[in-house]
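Duplicate of earlier report; Cytochrome C oxidase subunit I input re-posted below.
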Amino acid sequence: MKVSRSLKNVILIELFVPITLLILGIYHGLMQTVYRAGVIHQSSAVKLDYYQGLTLHGVINAIVLTTFFAVAFGHATIAYYLKKEPNKRASWISLILMVTGTLLAAYAMLAGKASVLYTFYPPLKAHPLFYIGTAMLIVGSWVPLFDWMVVYLGWKKEHRGEKIPLAVLGTLVNFIIWFVCTLAVAYEVLVLLLPWAMGYKATVDVTLARTLFWFFGHALVYFWLLPAYIMFYTMLPKWAGGKLYSDNAGRIAFFLFLLLSVPVGVHHQFSDPNISQSSKWVSTLLTFGVAVPSFITAFTLAASLEYAGWKRGAKGLLGWVNKLPYLDQNNYMFGYLIAGLILFIFGGLTGIVNASYALNNVVHNTAWLPGHFHMTVAGPVFLAMIGMSLFMLNGLTGKKIFLPKLNVIVPYLWLIGVLIFSSGLMYGGLMGEPRRTNLGMTYLNPGHELYHPQWVPSTMLALAGGIIMFAAGMCYFIVFFGTCFSKKATESSLVFPDTSSYHDEKYIPLFNSFKPWLVMMVIIIMIAYIPTLLDVLRFGGPGAPPHLPSSPTPGI
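Output:
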């Protein structure tokens, strides 16, 4: 599909900006493992503080990269599958807001005025520009949803009785989830945190801010994940050489995410005493429920890949596994997606531990948690995003992939690194190793009275994995920017694989309409969060003064 110069430029900028910033994000990821392994026994290195680096790592990797990519990929899927481009003016307004917001927040973080981590929990206090930039990034990402809805409604009028293209359904579901969940964090930023940061308020309601953040924070995980799910359902079977086992399975999975992504955030607050046990129990049930679409996806993709293996001439019970195109340089996206899926198996299993109230108490605020979410966020999410960024760059510029042999090993090198890294973190977490902590200052400093030698093996294992991940990231940057600055080889175009379904499934109106699912979504959110918010407002306690990560005393 030919795309206009305007849309092509918007998408390419939305890919180039976050991938460029990702260099800084991955560097600080490596530095976190170096600090935590006790290699550095100080609070900063190269004039960047530990918590400053941790904030940059989290914000760039988890907020900036994911938001920019989701918008760019959304533009591409809407344009390709509906055969109509998004509004030019809306696309550029969105891009300008997101880039400006990112630059404002980046200034605050790089200047050392916003070392508040990506969760920006109060009473950690950031410079006002950090909150203003965050709000601009969020608002900028809202604009495309309303524009895409206009395009979708126009398509629907012209194609009555036809199925919504699965990729379009996934994109719209993802951004509806994003819009709903970011309403809470927008309120937190603009009403609670920004006036406090600007000095208009002396204190802030910590528990209310935490609750509003996690209304957003766990749904954010699915905002990260759903672009990868779109690729899994609509593109991976074709790249594997087969067909999608069930189109309706994908629709069910996407709509279940719409229902259950937002109201599960309370499971991040199991240790908060001011939230009732009944609210936590509801969150536990919903969290186990949100595993259902992942199980549906696991079965559907396994069946799709098995069919592809048989099409490639496999024999025997598991012979299909060996027939898939793992190292095909001309089909590199398969490697990026299959490596992510392997990591997601472990990420999903460890996530069930976090969802359980009893087991969560064992691993809460330990290194287990970043071990788990690196298997999910740094697994299928990250690999799908960087792989598709390269794929769209390749198509929209008409440039050949730079060093294709190096490119095809990147996802597997990353896979090995994450498995080692996360194993080290989770092993340490089971022994009580804390998260968000510069262990090299105390617990892994042999000269300190708090030295914990039992954490040396786990942190060294995490360091080894982190080094491998860093090496894989550097290889990817060589490929991406080498492709970006190489000469044009073919005509530019936007092309996605058109995966057909193995089963000729009939049209089911329930799976092709948003209205009933949106109503159910609102009802479930109200059931989960009205009692929780009432608990928080009733038992929130007094407001808190600012607290700096480097100071043990609030207000200093």
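Residues 337-494 form one domain.

Merging into the original ticket.
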